[in-house]
């Protein structure tokens, strides 16, 4: 799909057209080490399942997604890189983005600088038999770049990309060389131009054999192994070359930083010198003296020799160090660049550190530490510098981003910043709040944050709450309609449905975000719950009452051992600005008010009628012809008693929906049938009967939806069709139309009236 079509689409019918414009994208980052790249254009690229997403750190929102990959995206790389300051990267109108996926595919995208406008440029020839794991590249001229890709198949491929100098010109990519590194693949790469050897390149590889392999080559792409660097005792996860650095009276030095699962960081120094007869004889004869052993290996590229030595060993992280990166260089007057001696590291210990040499002694020390303090945090997979070095970005185990910016004047003061958020795994269900003010997915709440000054009166959508964090995958969710407080019911991979009610902190945060007055039915004085605490097993969320907050958590005795039922207390907060990840993950929970027991297997689908009086739920059926397990249960809102058990299907009911007047309940199933039940609420309870059951599709039916103004409804199936039906004489259904066949399975659909769009 073209960018214009992707951002805005028009559907034309007999009465005219309906224009649809994208206002929000929510997505999480894939749980892969080399997945994120912060480009010189100012945009951050990352893999979001099979798509590549671009987000603007300035706006804190995802600007677009790039579809095309057929497997999960593992790695991305911007060309030009942040190190290519001599090529005028920050003044370019067009940048190029590489993306590699788990099926070995590599794609090139052409991106408009800062605007997110994109075009699919190239799909490279398949050179890898397994997933692409890492990229490394540099510009070697104003129109040419050399980059390398590595894969778990043990192959490293060298590529050249050339770009036409005209604005918006096309690009071409050719394979120059491939290196077979053996049975232990490389998982990290870094490429640099050798100092005083403009035509020679150096490529560092690190992987599963605990060694750093140094290769030297030229612009033709032919690389020859030069030496090995030993010292790490576990997998090497990240490598990064600096730009050449002039230190005191020495010649230009090149620095390489490496990180490993052994929890350490090593800085290697490569000092250039002329090729002497002694060093040549030493290389030829292999006579290694004590001096060369201490200093490290010596290698030759062109007419220059390079002495490698270990500059420093950095120990500070308490878990695997997944990422290290030099601070991006700055361009001085003329063709001179300045490489700041500053390194950013990210680790699974939930910390990012900035390392710098101490001014007086030259010893490398940790000068800045930032991190994730949430109880549910599981560490960082990567850390990245902003091109100007004023912000740092991390992505974590749960697909979340964390960004800090130095806002200090006289001294450093790193403060959390707003970043986009979203799911890092498939979204199984979502629903609008009864007022339409916000959207609930399984289970995150997104809303327009209007209490924020933005250029052009733009309203950005933000994640404002994470009402349920669960130990099981959440499969379905439904808002309870009608009056009263905000409530929803969710079902997960367990046999229990859970009911949640909005706490006071959320209601006030929602008012801050939307700038709307509360509904008449929302009486804050009657809401006595301020927030919720998570139990140790991550299954139940217990209320925190407003009167209970008067007792400070510090006043509670901690002399005894921690209870298995408690973990650190949440701090429910009324947010006046969008919450960041640490706050979302812990301080925005909703309390659980009821549990609904009855189903024999894991919950799969749930819905609520439009009066807010009945909830219908279904569970998974693991064996064919078990109608008692495939029953639809009806629950009365308020008393939460089971008031009906509807039998019709033989396999899992995949979706249900009440008609707008609540007279009928429509259900579809994996057994390829649709069923319609008549529902009537009486003083004694609920009367229900099966109106009709009909085999509707040739494959599993995944979705259904009623016409808001009548008894017509639509069904969508794995057979790639959508069919339109109507209820006939309240006793049967009639097929009205079948839409043209889609390219893939229809897994979700919704029917909206035209007058509801305006």
From TrEMBL:
The keyword Ribonucleoprotein does not apply. This is Elongator complex protein 2. PANTHER family: ELONGATOR COMPLEX PROTEIN 2. One of its GO terms (cellular component) is elongator holoenzyme complex. Keywords: Cytoplasm, Nucleus, Repeat, tRNA processing, WD repeat. WD repeats lie at residues 229-278, 646-687, 694-735. Pathway: tRNA modification; 5-methoxycarbonylmethyl-2-thiouridine-tRNA biosynthesis. The keyword Cytoplasm applies. It is found in: Cytoplasm; Nucleus. GO terms for biological process: tRNA wobble uridine modification. Its main location: cytoplasm. Belongs to the WD repeat ELP2 family. SMART domains: WD40.
């Amino acid at each position: 799909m073209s960018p214009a079509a992707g951002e805005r689409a028009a559907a034309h019918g007999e009465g005219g057209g309906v224009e649809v414009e994208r206002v929000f994208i929510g997505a999480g980052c894939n749980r892969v080490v080399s997945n994120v790249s912060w480009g010189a254009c100012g945009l951050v690229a990352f893999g979001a399942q099979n798509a590549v997403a671009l987000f603007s750190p300035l706006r804190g929102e995802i600007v677009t997604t790039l579809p095309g990959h057929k497997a999960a995206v593992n790695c991305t790389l911007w060309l030009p890189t942040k190190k290519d300051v001599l090529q005028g990267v920050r003044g370019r109108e067009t940048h190029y983005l590489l993306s590699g996926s788990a099926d070995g595919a590599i794609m090139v995208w052409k991106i408009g600088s800062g605007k997110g406008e994109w075009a699919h440029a190239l799909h490279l020839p398949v050179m890898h038999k397994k997933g692409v794991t890492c990229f490394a590249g540099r510009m070697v001229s104003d129109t040419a770049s050399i980059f390398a890709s590595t894969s778990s198949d043990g192959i490293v491929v060298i590529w050249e990309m050339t770009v036409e100098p005209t604005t918006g010109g096309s690009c071409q990519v050719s394979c120059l060389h491939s290196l077979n590194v053996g049975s232990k693949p490389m998982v990290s790469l870094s490429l640099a131009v050798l100092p005083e050897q403009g035509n020679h390149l150096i490529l560092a590889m690190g992987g599963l054999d605990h060694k750093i392999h140094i290769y030297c080559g030229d612009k033709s792409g032919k690389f020859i192994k030069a030496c090995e660097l030993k010292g790490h005792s576990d997998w090497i996860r990240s490598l990064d070359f600096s730009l050449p650095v002039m230190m005191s009276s020495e010649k230009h030095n090149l620095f390489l930083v490496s990180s490993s699962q052994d929890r350490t960081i090593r800085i290697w120094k490569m000092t250039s010198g002329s090729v002497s007869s002694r060093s040549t004889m030493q290389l030829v004869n292999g006579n290694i003296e004590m001096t060369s052993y201490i200093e490290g290996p010596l290698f030759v590229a062109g007419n220059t020799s390079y002495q490698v030595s270990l500059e420093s060993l950095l120990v500070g992280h308490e878990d695997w160090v997944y990422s290290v990166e030099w601070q991006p260089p700055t361009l001085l007057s003329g063709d001179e660049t300045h490489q700041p001696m500053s390194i950013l590291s990210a680790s699974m210990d939930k910390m990012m550190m900035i390392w710098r040499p101490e001014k007086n002694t030259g010893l490398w020390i940790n000068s800045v530490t930032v991190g994730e303090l949430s109880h549910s945090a599981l560490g960082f997979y990567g850390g990245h510098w902003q091109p100007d070095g004023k912000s740092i970005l991390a992505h974590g185990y749960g697909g979340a981003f964390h960004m800090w910016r130095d806002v200090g004047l006289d001294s450093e003061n790193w403060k959390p910043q707003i970043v986009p958020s979203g799911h890092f795994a498939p979204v199984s269900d979502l629903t609008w709040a009864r007022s339409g003010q916000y959207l609930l997915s399984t289970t995150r709440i997104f809303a327009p944050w209007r209490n924020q000054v933005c250029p052009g009166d733009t309203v950005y959508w933000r994640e404002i709450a994470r009402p349920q964090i669960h130990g099981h995958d959440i499969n379905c969710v439904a808002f309870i309609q009608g009056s009263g407080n905000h409530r929803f019911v969710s079902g997960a991979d367990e046999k229990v449905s859970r009911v949640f009610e909005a706490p006071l902190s959320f209601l006030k945060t929602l008012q801050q975000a939307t700038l709307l007055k509360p509904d008449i039915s929302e009486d804050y004085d009657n809401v006595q719950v301020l927030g919720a605490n998570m139990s140790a097993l991550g299954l139940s969320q217990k209320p925190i009452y407003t009167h209970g907050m008067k007792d400070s958590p510090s006043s509670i005795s901690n002399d005894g051992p921690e209870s298995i039922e408690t973990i650190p207390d949440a701090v429910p907060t009324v947010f006046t600005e969008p919450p960041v990840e640490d706050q979302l993950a812990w301080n925005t929970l909703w309390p659980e008010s009821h549990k609904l027991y009855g189903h024999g297997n894991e919950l799969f689908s749930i819905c609520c009628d439009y009066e807010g009086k009945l909830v219908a739920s279904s569970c998974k059926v693991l064996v064919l012809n078990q109608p008692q397990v495939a029953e639809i249960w009806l629950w009365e809102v308020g008393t939460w008693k089971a008031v009906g058990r509807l039998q019709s299907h033989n396999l899992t009911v995949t979706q249900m929906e009440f008609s707008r007047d609540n007279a009928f309940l429509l259900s579809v199933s994996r057994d390829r049938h649709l069923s319609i039940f008549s529902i009537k609420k009486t003083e004694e309870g609920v009367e229900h009967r099966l109106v009709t059951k009909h085999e509707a599709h040739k494959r599993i039916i995944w979705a259904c939806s009623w016409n808001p103004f009548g008894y017509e409804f639509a069904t969508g199936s794995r057979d790639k069709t959508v069919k339109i039906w109507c209820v006939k004489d309240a006793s049967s259904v009639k097929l009205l139309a079948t839409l043209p066949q889609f390219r893939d399975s229809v897994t979700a659909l919704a029917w909206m009236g035209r007058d509801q769009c305006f």
